[in-house]
Amino acid sequence: MGARPAVGHTATNPVIPGFHPDPSVCRVEGDYYLACSSFEYFPGVPIFHSRDLVNWTQIGNALERPSQLRLPPGTPSSGGVYAPTLRHHDGRFWLITTNVSDGGNLLVTATDPAGPWSEPVRVTAVAGIDPDLAWDDDGNCWCTHAGVEQVRIDPFTGQALGHPHRVWSGTPGAKAPEAPHLYRIEDLWYLLIAEGGTERGHGVSIARGPAPTGPFEPCPANPILTHRGTDHPIQNTGHADLVQAPDGSWWMVVLGVRPRGGTPGWHVLGRETYLAPLTWVDGWPVVGQLSPVLAAPPWRLQPGPVAPVRDEFDLDVLQPGWVSLRHRPAQCWSTKQRIGWLTLNAHGTSMDDPDVTFVGRRQQHLSCRARALIDPGDGRGGLAVRLDEEHHYEIEAAPGVVTVFARIGPLQAAVATRSVPAGPVVVRIEVAAAPVVSDPRAGPDTVSIGFEEPDGTFTVLASLDGRYLSTEVAGGFTGRIIGMYAATGTVHFDWFDYEPLDERGFVSTGLGVAARATVGHTGPAVNAR
Ligand code: 6LW
Known about the structure:
The structure is a single chain. By secondary structure, the protein is an all-beta fold. Helices cover 1% and strands 44% of the residues. Strands 26, 28, 29, 31, 36, 37, 38 and 40 form an eight-stranded antiparallel sheet that branches. Strands 30-39-32-33-34-35 form a six-stranded antiparallel sheet, with no helix packed on it. Strand 32 and strand 33 (391-398) form a beta hairpin. The longest helix has 4 residues, at 471-474. The relative contact order is 0.15. The structure holds (Z)-L-Arabinonhydroximo-1,4-lactone. (Z)-L-Arabinonhydroximo-1,4-lactone is lined by residues 21-22, 37, 82-83, 129-130, 178-179, 194, 197-198, 239, 477.
């Protein structure tokens, strides 16, 4: 690690903004790897790399083949792939997760975390969600899951080597003991869990015992982390994983949300990944400040590459940060059909359709701008911001006309329409976070949707309240995804760009010490906040 930098060096949280929930982290020498849940999106289980726990780059997805990830028709939004555990053991990476919409627990391995990952081994003997993996000195592999139950398994076959048994029930009275992670730290085994549910009551608790099977005594200070009942800007904090850095210091990655607006507060970016320092007192972990600006780790931060703004679709493949809904049939997309363009061939007929041809990226900033140059040809397609099939706003282009649609639960409306010259048109969605105000009824943000005149002027056709595209309204486990879709025929996108805007609506360079990262070349950026 580099020489210790000057004191007062800061970094910003979340370290992986946007919908990146249920983080699981491991370290191999000087490299950190992190995985998140992905629900109805394909490819699934994004994998990130970092050298300093602050700058993260998405290097791939663990489940990127239909043989690894089936999200059959009928897989609901917020169904699919729940929390993963990522570990390195015996020279290879192990990832276990739950596809609640197809077959339950599965385990994949890889020698290179960027992929390819193996075909899945089914772990059907483990019924619960949030499966964890830990090996003892005798080479036994312990799988612990929500509830909190545990069973020894053969990770090569997925077979249970014994009967699942309860090892801890969490804090009496606290609901949903889940997200267990088991660690051997010096002579003791520690069992970290989330409890209280993934909403405002979320928290992290820990217990320790002499063996991987316990018995476990709870930490007297539980929960060791929660923001429940506080006015802290980061809420729902819970579902954590621990990692020790090469210099011996300990760190926690944990999910949290940034509610905005009046009451009850609405979070639109989903559950994001945060970093917090950890110290040890009497053999128990004490979580340090979990704040929007954290004291950077005592090592030199790796300068992250500047977040590119535009994807020109010049490559044969889509960058790992692009996601589709439930699957991405080869016949539905191409960057070769029209060189230098992303071509989408319609499958479903609108953004209401679970099967719509869609390629999107996570909204990662409270204020941001997304633009795309679309040529609808004789088809219909556009740019959408989506929470799920019943909660989305989009601008749709068809020959000579653009229309803004809004879907909020059972209500669907063509909000505005405008004739435009036939041919390619730049469509734009701009999100402006609401200033922190005392109005209890204020929404979290405003979503302005329209197109650009030939001189680049933004003609806004509709400005819509963003609360209806929030988790508190739509429900579920995900966050906003902004992306391109085809509703009928074949539509082409020359480019897509995404820029963070600061609170005043200006493009934010984020040139502070704040970390940035990118995904490969010109794909979606990870955390140019
Ligand atoms: C995750 C579990 C949870 O697997 O939600 O609410 C699931 N808690 O820990 C999806 O994020």
